[in-house]
Amino acid sequence: MRLSRFFIDAPLSLGQHELPEAQAHYIGRVLRHSVGDAVQLFDGSGQEYLGELIEVGKKNVRVELREQFDGLAESPLRIHLGQGLSRGERMDWAIQKATELGVAEITPIVSERCEVRLKDERADKRLAHWRQIAISACEQCGRSVLPLIHPPVALGEWLETTGAELRLVLHPVAEPLASHARPTTLAFLIGPEGGLSDAEVDQAKAAGYHAARLGPRVLRTETAPVVALSVAQQLWGDF
Predict the structure, then answer these.
(1) Cβ-based neighbours of 234, under 8 Å, separated by 6 or more
(2) One GO molecular function term (predicted)?
């Protein structure tokens, strides 16, 4: 039986802990765990904790953590993904898969051809939703550190503030990724559903970005980060 693993948004240590209400409900009411069941918890610090459920009620769950150990090491390649803001499940998919593939930071980018506009309360709700997607992906894939999910920003702001040793913008007419030397930090810019305009690609190049391609076919906005991150991790990361 697979050991249940959960993220706890609070510092953990050895000993007894009462779990937050949301996790308590999920463990006790949804998964129907009982006293004596083993669990594995992590708090995003890079440490993992093994323990046992010592109390399982309708609204409260207590666990005793008895073993602490180093979690899965992060990739030596720190990647910041600038993902063009897209609709619903496409953005969710991109964030989920980017998390599984070891990205360190994700920033949704508002560009000329974006079909989505988020403001105020709706933007806050989407950011919380994306963060939960990243948490669930970390729980599933074994990562012990959560990627940072930034609020959406305009393309120009991202280009001005995001620095990395190697900065790439995906474009169908460009050099392949393998033509670049191995970096330790990488910024990837990927357009929305309609792609980046030629003017935006030129704007990125003026900000120090190199145009890079992933092959002869044009990929969907939710497919491109999966392929780009996989290739980058194979070339320079931990694949």
Answers:
(1) none
(2) methyltransferase activity
Residues 81-110 have a mean pLDDT of 94
Distances (CA, A) of 131 to 30, 42, 92, 209, 225: 21, 16, 10, 27, 17
Closest CA to 33 of 76, 10, 2: 2
Determine contact, residues 195/171, Cβ cutoff 8 Å.
no
Question: pLDDT digits over 139-168, tens only?
Answer: 999 999 999 999 999 999 999 988 899 999
pLDDT-derived band at 226, boundaries 50, 70, 90: very high
Residues 6+ positions from 104 with CB-CB distance below 8 Å: 74, 75, 78, 79, 80, 147, 148
170, 90 contact by CB (below 8 A):
no
Both tokens assigned to 205: 């190049």
Sign of CA dihedral 101, 105, 109, 115: positive
Name 1's bridge partners.
Answer: none
- pLDDT confidence bin for 193, thresholds 50/70/90: confident
Do 79 and 102 contact (CB within 8 A), yes or no? yes
